Amino acid sequence: MILTEEEKREAVEKSREILSKHDSSRGSLIPVLQEVQSVLGYVPPDAMQEVAGHFNIPSVDVYSVVTFYNQFRLTPPGKNQVKICMGTACHMRGAGTIMESWERVLNIKVGETTLDREFSLERVACVGCCTLAPVAVVNEAVHGKMTPTKVDGMLFSHRLANPKEKEEKPGEQ
Amino acid sequence: MSNKKAAPALEKLQGQAVQNRESLRGKTLILVGAATCGRAVGALDVARVFREEIERLQLDAAVIEVGCMGHCYAEPMAVIYKPGEPGICYGYLNEGIAARLPQDYLVEGDPCAEFALAAMEVHEYIPTFQDFPRGLIEQKAVMEHCGFIDPENIDDYLAVGGYSALAAALDREPSGVISEIKDSGLRGRGGAGFPTGLKWEMCSSSQEKTRYIICNADEGDPGAFMDRTILESNPHLVIEGLAIAAYSAGAGKAYFYVRAEYPLAVERIKKALQQAAGLGIIGKSMLGTEYSLDIEVFQGSGAFVCGEETALIASMEGEPGLPRHRPPYPAVAGLFGKPTVIDNVKTLSYVPLIIKNGAGWFKATGTEKSPGTAIFALAGKLVNTGLTEVPMGTTLSQIIYDVGSGIAGNKKFKAVQIGGPSGGCLPEETLETPVDYQSLSKAGAMMGSGGMVVLDENDCMVEIARFFLDFTQKESCGKCTFCRLGTKHMLDILERITRGAGRPEDIDLLLELAEDVRAGSLCNLGKTAPNPVLSTLRYFRQEYDAHINEKRCPSLMCKDLIAYYILPDKCERSCDACVGSCPVEAIFSNEDRIKVINQEKCVKCDSCLVACPPQYKAVIKVSPPDEVLRREKGVK
């Protein structure tokens, strides 16, 4: 995913702002990265470089932490985040099929964002709604008892509800 | 130890709390279960409707969002306490029922027994929880107050005698507290079962004065949600346990290490910590004594291996979570090289109860070698999923059939998976096994953290083994070669088998690799990773053989080994349900207007089987897939 200059500048600015509130002891590294992600939605390379400079460690060390933990994303999230629960109960009730359906309708693989940045698709560990399996979490709302046709329906109703957004979006920024 | 006593200071706080709650006396209380499980099915909407109705009817009632009682299957739930009447617990609520209850019950006096799950005390015509087998087997110690107190209000916890154990502990010598815990025989509930008192003693006898204590709430097992529920339902209990542990081990700094996937738990602990600090229960000179403790929340970043204590420490130090060699044990040299005690959420939750009621009380429950209760998260194909607390030594069949009410949909029981990715699958003949540390490991599973997933006849055991190995393989940190590559290779073999490309020698190869991975891994993630494979091979060998030799999945689950087929003699010509349900337009009508599946297009998504009306049941799964050809030829 190619980042715009604007996004890079924002990453640097926001990271500096966050770093100014933290000391440079190594124990603060993960909390700082978590904060970067919660502000930007992901951890871009420019932010990692800023963080490395602050802690006085090689950038590759920051990269190794970011890539080790599942929580950190390297690409910007979509406007709508689709997360598929892959816990045991959901798996036994067909979470794999649901994941394939989303991949098919969005034309992306898990962990990716659609080119128009409208949707991103992720897998999550158990969200604790095992009785509703299989479960998909779209933005913060939990949708239980998912079926492939329900996936089609959700996407269809989303597109009905947001018909103009695609044209408006470039104009806004 | 100071001369100042903590008990009088606490009594004052408790008295204050009781007074603060005085405003609720005489009011109707509506407790809505609003832990994550309840919220997922609309508990917050139910609570909102209750509030609106109370407002509209001008009733003297309060709606309180509480945690989870453990009956997750019936969420959203609410307990209504009408003054002068036994509390009634309602289940399977929705906004419609919630809109009715205030009018019908609170105004007109009809308790709406049709929506009631059970009464909290003896009721004229609603049975109590004790009238069900589940109520007889369950013995709630840690979960006693879960779902009945407001987790976001410290007054609720203080009013039921909360923090008394902490005050009592502070008025004793740390060594006295440790010997009480040692005496109780409490063992770590995180999986390994190490004696808790011993761990504290190791830390407290250290020469190093800077010591840490960490509450491990990095509950990563798929299918386990006990820690989350406790933290969301009664955070003060865990804080109290943590503070007692810190005082005993002589630590001045404590951490909650909570998983990133549990935002509500993090929010509730943070709030609880603020409230406790505000009243001087934790923080500087706790309850007026000379002891000070600072408690912080550290959020994990989503790595299963960080449940392992040395990896957890590495992640708190800002490193990738790679386990380290033990010894030295964390109790000797842990976080930043200082002595560190790490205890699981459940372990710490028992601590206040043991201090309050004594070691003898704790030992009176459970078995000799595993005293106390065990908390299990029941998930999978059960009728009543949820959380349960039973005495150690309860048999698996009691938990599955009496507490969980058996298998859903009249299916046949096949296996129960215990202990998550490190555990194993136990078949029907082992159901009389009592749950305790020794018996479970002898049967080939393990206590683990307490996740229990029940599988029925439609679940393929090879696929289950593959699922768990896929999990551990992805979560392997990569430090030890055998865990990193061995699990990958085992996974490749299992995938091959589920695709129907298995070879006869694969089973021996799996067994050999399992032994190597176990022997060549540093931490328990690797050491136990082969368990799901080994236990399924031990008890369900015939399923592996069917996959390998006949290219057939007996449970009709492995996608590459099945095909969907529409029975021509059952298909109703005028019905098009399956055609409409197919997302890839693979179903067409033949010249007789019987529906046929184009096997080339079919993505095996199961939609047609679900869509086919129950009176026809024309869509079936067959294995191996060329069974379809055979049948189609047979028809013509």
Tell me briefly what this model is:
The complex is a heterodimer of chains A (173) and B (636). Chain A is α+β, with helices and mostly antiparallel strands. In chain A, 50% of the residues lie in helices and 10% in strands.
Describe what this molecule looks like in 3D:
The complex is a heterodimer of chains A (173) and B (636). Chain A is an alpha+beta fold and 173 residues long. Chain A folds into 2 domains: 64 residues, Orthogonal Bundle (Arc Repressor Mutant, subunit A); 93 residues, 3-Layer(aba) Sandwich (Glutaredoxin), CATH 3.40.30. Chain A is built from 8 helices and 4 strands, in the order ααααβααβββαα. Chain B is of the alpha/beta class and 636 residues long. Chain B is built from 26 helices and 18 strands. In chain B, a hairpin with a 6-residue loop joins strand 3 and strand 4. The longest helix of chain B is centred in the last third of the chain and has 19 residues. Classes of the chains: A alpha+beta (173), B alpha/beta (636). The interface between A and B is large, with 44 and 52 residues.
Could you list some keywords that capture this structure?
heterodimer; A: 173 residues; alpha+beta; Arc Repressor Mutant, subunit A; Glutaredoxin; 2 domains; four-stranded mixed sheet; 8 helices; 4 strands; elongated; B: 636 residues; alpha/beta; Rossmann fold; Ubiquitin-like (UB roll); 5 domains; five-stranded mixed sheet; 26 helices; 18 strands
